[in-house]
């Protein structure tokens, strides 16, 4: 079941089309990656979902019904452009922000104490925000985003300002939030995080949705029918027996172990037949299909759509 559906969203600013009939379907209790280059329209779509701005066309369906202003309380939103009141004390400000989300003072204090201890920032409670590093401020804003236990969490570049240790800390918490029932939509340029966290992705470029789907299915769709092999035996003999069926790229090996990258010329050749042919010639040590990374897919898809639009 989809928890969030954005259907045929159109948004124009003057003569610029920021979103051109963009649709996404975010399954319930999933982590959904909204991807795209700078200026693609991601933040505009996020602002529409948050009811900060309205679409010119299209609709947002949340939890099975058309979204209304009251549904904002179901959302926790961490925007890319973030800011805290520099002169306020950390604890005072955190409590103020969670009270705005409808959390009582007593519950807010209790939950903030738990999260400050969990993130090891309790000693900063009475410090002014301006005394904190950017990473420390990020932790506070992450906490106040999730503390009221929203059903939908939207993170726009959630790892900005964090060192690798705190990136892993936040990733772990995002996974726990999903396990506890939250649906997560996040936008990032860190493709390694997308591969680690996301169940589904959508890629927007120039205001258009250019690909979407379950992440493993998207990666499989873009696979180039290319394989890496390592083997022991007569390298020249293997090359001569494979060159009609494959484009062959030799790589440096170690000792008696040789490496090749094989790209199929014949798409009808099965993996089983490939392995049998190789084993008839040499001793196969390893055989691995090359599956593109999300970063590779991102670059390829954006370049292809940019080329088409230029034509």
Can you put this structure into words, describing what you see?
With 311 residues, this protein is α/β, with parallel strands linked by helices. The chain has 2 domains: 2-220, 3-Layer(aba) Sandwich (Rossmann fold); 224-289, Alpha-Beta Plaits (2-Layer Sandwich). 36% of the residues lie in helices and 31% in strands. The chain has helices spanning 42-49, 90-100, 105-118, 134-146, 164-179, 191-197, 215-221, 235-242, 271-281, 294-310; strands spanning 2-13, 16-27, 31-35, 57-62, 65-66, 75-78, 152-156, 183-187, 200-205, 208-214, 226-232, 246-254, 257-264, 283-289. It has a 6-stranded mixed beta sheet with strand order 6-7-8-3-9-10, sandwiched between helices. A 4-stranded antiparallel beta sheet has the order 2-1-4-5, with helices on one face. Strands 12-13-11-14 form a 4-stranded antiparallel beta sheet, with helices on one face. The longest helix is centred in the last third of the chain and has 17 residues, at 294-310. It is elongated. The model has no long low-confidence stretch (mean pLDDT 90).
């Amino acid at each position: 079941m989809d928890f969030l559906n954005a259907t045929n969203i159109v948004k124009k600013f003057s003569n610029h089309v920021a979103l051109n009939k963009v649709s996404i379907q975010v399954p319930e209790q999933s982590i959904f990656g909204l991807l795209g280059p700078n200026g693609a329209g991601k933040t505009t779509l996020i602002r529409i979902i948050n009811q900060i701005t309205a679409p010119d066309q299209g609709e947002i369906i949340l939890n099975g019904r058309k979204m209304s202003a009251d549904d904002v309380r179901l959302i926790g939103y961490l925007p890319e452009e973030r800011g805290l009141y520099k002169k306020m004390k950390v604890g005072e400000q955190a409590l103020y922000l969670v009270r705005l989300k409808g959390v009582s003072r007593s519950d807010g204090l209790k939950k903030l104490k738990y999260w400050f201890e969990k993130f090891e920032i309790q000693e900063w409670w009475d410090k002014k925000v301006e005394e904190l590093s950017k990473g420390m401020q990020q932790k506070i804003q992450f906490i106040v985003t999730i503390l009221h236990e929203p059903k939908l969490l939207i993170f726009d570049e959630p790892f900005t300002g964090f060192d690798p240790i705190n990136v892993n800390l936040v990733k772990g918490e995002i996974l726990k939030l999903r396990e506890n029932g939250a649906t997560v939509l996040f936008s990032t340029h860190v493709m390694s995080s997308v591969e680690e966290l996301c169940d589904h992705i959508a890629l927007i470029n120039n205001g258009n949705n250019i690909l979407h789907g379950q992440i493993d299915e998207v990666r499989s769709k873009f696979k180039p029918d290319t394989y890496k092999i390592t083997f022991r035996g007569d390298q020249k003999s293997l090359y001569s027996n494979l060159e009609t069926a494959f484009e062959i790229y030799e790589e440096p090996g170690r000792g008696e172990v040789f490496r090749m990258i094989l790209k199929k010329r014949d798409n009808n050749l099965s993996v089983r037949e490939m392995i049998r042919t190789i084993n008839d010639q040499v001793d196969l040590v390893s055989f691995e299909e090359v599956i593109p990374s999300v970063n590779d897919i991102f670059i390829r898809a954006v370049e292809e759509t940019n080329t088409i639009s230029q034509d």
